[in-house]
Design goal:
By secondary structure, the protein is of the alpha+beta class. The chain has two helices and six strands.
Length: about 80
């Protein structure tokens, strides 16, 4: 398992969980991500990562492209689809 930050580009990924370590108050961020479609079992694809600091990341979820900060992407645990 890995976070979205560690995920390879252009591979199908399945969300497995939200990681709640290293963040004091995740409720607002987690709620925002869930409203955008980042829920357990959803399939996503990391489309692009910015060239220098790898932030932001462009992620496709449910047919929409969403830009995530590194902090947001670090909260979502994924696994590569077979």
């Amino acid at each position: 398992m890995m976070t979205i930050n560690q995920a390879p580009l252009l591979k199908g990924l399945t969300i497995t969980a939200f990681e709640k370590t290293n963040v004091e108050d995740i409720s607002d961020i987690e709620s925002r991500l869930m409203h955008l479609g980042f829920v357990d079992g959803a399939t996503i694809v990391v489309k692009r990562k910015a060239p220098f600091f790898k932030e932001p990341l462009l992620v496709e979820v449910r047919g929409r492209l969403i830009a995530l900060s590194k902090a947001e992407a670090e909260l979502v645990t994924v696994e590569v689809n077979p």
